[in-house]
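Complex record, two chains
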Amino acid sequence: MSMKKAIKYIVWVVVLLLVAFKSVYIKKLSDVKAAKSTSFNAATYAQNFWKNKLSQAEAKAVDVDELFAQLKSNPKEAFQKYGHAIAIGSTRFFMVKGKGTVRQITADEVELNTTGANNTQLATTYVFGNAVRDASGLVSINDFTNTIDLSNVSGEIDKIIRKQVLPPFRQTVKAEDHLEFTGAIELNEAHLNLADAEIIPVNLKIIK
Amino acid sequence: MRRVLPLLLLLLVLGACRNHQSANQHPKIAVVVSTLNNPWFVFLAQTAAARAKELGYEPRIFDSQNNTALETDHFDDAIASGYKAILFNPTDANGSVVNVNKAKAAGVPVFCMDREVNSAAPTSQILSDSYSGCVKLGELFVKTLHQKGTYVELLGLVADNNTWNRSKGFHSVVDEYPGLKMVAQQSADFDRNKAMDVMQSILQAHPDIDAVFCGNDAMAMGAYQALVAAGKANKVKVIGFDGAEDAVQAIKDGKILATAMQFPKVMAQTAANYANDYIKGKRIFPAKIPVGVEVVNQTNVNEYMAYGKKN
């Protein structure tokens, strides 16, 4: 073998070794598992929020009749005092509590007459959006690197309401029933319309 | 020394002139926008520029014409020309990242408006809450169709995050109702003419649809034109997204069902305010700030005008 050929083979071997070295990455299995476990799970987050955190917000809920009275007399102050929202804008969400009598049951809502003589609606079919997540005041955008994760949290909270809170309630509720409730309301400060305000239920109790 | 003295004096005078000129010059802010071929983005860019001017800067609008290569040229130009900040409406969530990185490396802060890049490099991203807006539109859609029917979805640019945030928000509601069947889902690139062409060909295969959900108002108007040409405009419900002038008017006229009103003024002004804060020394900004959107339909259209609320 000539010297020239030998150098050629050595160069090829070096190149092949280099390619092989650069093509294979070895990672610790524990690192891979750790990376996987850090991916966000909205359903788990929502379950934890529902079981362990939401009660803090419910404890601070404003009475719906008191809120409506303040919204009529001084809406700006009521929005500042009780409203929460993650997004910039005139829409704010309020955690409310109250008691009332069922006036009517429709396909999508239970219409209530509250103890303070306000007419309002409990949503029983279309429970979507950010009302409960934002009204709680417990979720911060800075805890999320991805806005889709933040949106999915709302979706999963709403799913808990649609699947756990509403079915047993819808089966038993009747006109004239007395209710105790907590829930979230969405209101727009620039287009305030209390007549159409709908409560997304968090807790519903029928007091016969 | 006799020869040097006049030269030194001349240099001193020239230097004084230069200092005088730069004292009068305002620092510059670049507004790099994906396209000026859509009135919504024209409004966004002009509002950002106007706010920058109010704050004492010299703004310049750069049109990327939906082309990331051209966008790169604009960034190179802005960095080389000493712009103090870039108010940015990206062309591509992934393809625009390289430009943001380049600006960041050069010490020029970037504030994204309306469209997102898949990177933590921008100083802040001020974005419409498209997902939540489309959740609301999805709810209206389901109620209007009484939970059953067939529909078509026209998607925007597939490389833009807004396209998927809108689609996912809409489907997070509509897919809960098995009576609603999507018979076609195609991209029309947020473009009115493309939407008309795409809709015309879809209608040939699916002439009996009940509704069309479009990722923006330009496509909604294009889809509506195709439905008019096919004689189906009165039967098929059309939904858009943006709050563009022609769409708001079309809702008033009963031509389309609804749109989601975005607030480009809020986004543009927030971006310009943040840039001003950065130039004045502030360094901590929220990575992403969602801006709420509101559903506009026949019941409330008189409370709104294009690009925001009626005052």
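Note: Helices of chain A lie at 3-23, 29-37, 42-59, 64-73, 75-82, 131-135, 147-172.
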